[in-house]
Amino acid sequence: MDRIWYAVRTKPRAEKRLQSLLRSWHVLCVLPTCVKVRRAQRHVIRTDIPIFPGYLMARLDASERLGVLRTNMTVSIVP
Q1: Which distant-in-sequence residues (6+ apart) come within 8 Å of 74 by Cβ?
Q2: Contact 71/21 with Cβ under 8 angstroms?
Q3: What is the DSSP string of 14-65?
Q4: Contact present, 78 and 9 (Cβ < 8 Å)
Q5: Measured between alpha carbons, how far is residue 5 from residues 41, 45, 61, 79 in Å?
Q6: Exposed/middle/buried for 19, CB within 10 Å: 0-12, 13-18, 19+?
Q7: What is the distance between the alpha carbons of residues 65 and 42, in angstroms, rounded to a whole number?
Q8: Hey, how many other C-beta atoms are within 10 angstroms of the C-beta on 12?
Q9: Distance (Å, rounded) from C-alpha 4 to C-alpha 79?
Q10: Cα separation of 43 and 68, whole Å?
């Protein structure tokens, strides 16, 4: 079957969890992030924040698409 790139709309703040799940299924996925640096008292905290909040790009076939929709982290899939 052919794999097509989709934008997967996720529940709020579930992008990284869905990315790790898809990688465990050996699915090619992309989550573009940027680094946010902030100071908390004497520490510097670096956090990766998604550039497109609520979205993850994944290359899926029909059976993988159904599996992604069945997770509790997915809202919809946009072709």
Answers
A1: 8, 9, 10, 11, 18, 68
A2: yes
A3: -HHHHHHHHHHTT--EE--EEEEEEEETTEEEEEEEESSTTEEEEEE-HHHH
A4: yes
A5: 43, 33, 9, 7
A6: buried
A7: 45
A8: 8
A9: 8
A10: 38
Per-residue pLDDT tens for 12-48? Answer: 999 999 999 999 999 999 999 999 999 998 999 999 9
**pTM of this prediction exceeds 0.90:** no
Q: Which helix (H) or strand (E) holds 5?
A: strand 4-10
Average pLDDT, the chain: 94
Q: Is the dihedral of CA 62, 75, 71, 26 positive or negative?
A: positive
- Residue 69: how many other CB atoms lie within 10 Å: 13
